[in-house]
Amino acid sequence: MSLFCLVHGAFQGAWCWDLLIPYLEAQGHKTVAMDLPIEDASASLSQFADVVLQALPKTDDDIVLVGHSMAGTVIPLVAEAHQVRQLVFLTALIPCPGSSTIDQFSHHLDSDSLKSLNYQAKQSRELEQFDDEPYMFNPVSAGKNFADEAVLMEVFYQDCQPDVMRWALSKRRSQQSMAYIYEVNPLKALPNVDYKYIFCTDDLIISPAWSRYAARKRLGVDAIELPGGHCPHLSRPAHLASVLTNDRPSRVN
């Protein structure tokens, strides 16, 4: 049996895994979740990774590290410091060592947009590896204020049951750290572990087209498709648990 270490994304916390955990534990697996210090505007990716590392037991050698959304930028740092069997990117960003997330999609934005984001463009040759990539984010979410409850209802939780949506909104946290967008990933290479990428067909945050493309290009795997929106751990936890515990190979031959 595995230990599933569950790392939340932006605006969420350890609470967001509460519906998924019973399905994993019913199959005999162990779980651990933690709160990242997202309210701290100065918190770095390495600080996020340290919080995850502190939550991990020292003795378990069958660890599946699941990162949702923003946490895709965190879990490779954890795997660099602690042995894990598998990294699972759940509707998640995939970091590129030596680049920031905004480096990866800056070529899709005009100069005014980049200026509004306080982004200073790099030399084009540094970013040309991203030229063929689809836009990372779903245009539906562009320019949205995610501190607005109505926006979260529209693009985060649109396929959740009403009671789950109300609960999730009541638990939302203030996302002040923007390290997952602006910080350059410090790794020299992604860890040499097993990978799984799960995307959702109606995700209004991360573009499904980008997810398919990046899973193959960066992780060397075929992305696994689920129906629904950005938070399957809240909208369809039983289905997600079955995918997480299915060890069918996804690596591209």
Could you explain how this protein is built, in words?
The protein has 253 residues and is of the alpha/beta class. 33% of the residues lie in helices and 12% in strands. It is built from 12 helices and 6 strands. A 6-stranded parallel β-sheet has the order 2-1-3-4-5-6, with helices on both faces. α2 crosses α3.
Describe this structure in a few short sentences.
Keywords: Hydrolase. With 253 residues, the chain is α/β, with parallel strands linked by helices. It has helices at residues 21-25, 45-55, 75-81, 101-105, 111-116, 124-127, 149-155, 162-171, 179-182, 208-219, 232-235, 237-244, and strands at residues 3-7, 30-33, 63-68, 86-90, 194-200, 224-226.
What is the topological layout?
Blueprint: E1 3-7, H1 21-25, E2 30-33, H2 45-55, E3 63-68, H3 75-81, E4 86-90, H4 101-105, H5 111-116, H6 124-127, H7 149-155, H8 162-171, H9 179-182, E5 194-200, H10 208-219, E6 224-226, H11 232-235, H12 237-244
Helix pairs in contact: 2-3
> Order of helices and strands, N to C?
EHEHEHEHHHHHHEHEHH
Counting DSSP E segments of at least 2 residues, the number of strands comes to: 6
Oligomeric form of this entry?
A: single chain
Average pLDDT over all residues: 91
Shape assignment:
globular
Beta-strand fraction estimate: 5-15%
Distance N to C terminus: 27 Å
For the biggest sheet, the summary is: 6 strands, parallel
Give the helix level as a range of percent: 25-40%
Show unreliable segments.
none
Tell me the Rg in angstroms.
17 Å
Structural class: alpha/beta
Query: What is the number of helical segments per DSSP (H or I, 4+ residues)?
Result: 12
Largest sheet strand order: 2-1-3-4-5-6
